[in-house]
Specification:
Helix content: 10-25%
Number of domains: 1
Strand content: 25-35%
CATH class: Alpha Beta
Order of helices and strands: EHEEHE
Distance between the termini: 12 Å
Radius of gyration: 12 Å
Shape: globular
Largest sheet: 4 strands, antiparallel
Strand order of the largest sheet: 2-3-1-4
C-alpha cells in the first residue's frame, strides 16, 4: 500500500485553515486531513494508489502545489 503525505504552508495562500475545514470532503479512513493552526500549515495523509479527488479541491482552494509531497510504501509486518 502507498502512503502519501502532502503539506502546504498557508502563509501566502488564498485561504485559511478554517475555510478549508468548512469546505473539504471527508476522506475514507485511514486517510485524513492534517492541520497546525499555530504554524499555518495544512496537509493530508492518504493511503492507497490514487489521491482522493478532494486533494485536487484543496490545491485549488490554497492556490499552489504542496510545499512537501512525500510518498512511502507501507511496511507490512
Amino acid at each position: 500500500m502507498i502512503v502519501r503525505i502532502l503539506i502546504w504552508s498557508l502563509y501566502d495562500s488564498k485561504t485559511t485553515i478554517e475555510e478549508l475545514r468548512d469546505s473539504l470532503a471527508e476522506l475514507e479512513p485511514p486517510s485524513g486531513w492534517l492541520w497546525n493552526e499555530a504554524g499555518e500549515r495544512f496537509g493530508v495523509a492518504t493511503f492507497g494508489h490514487e489521491l482522493p479527488e478532494a486533494v485536487a479541491h484543496a490545491r485549488q482552494l490554497i492556490g499552489h502545489e504542496p510545499d512537501v509531497a512525500d510518498e512511502f510504501d507501507l511496511l507490512d509486518l
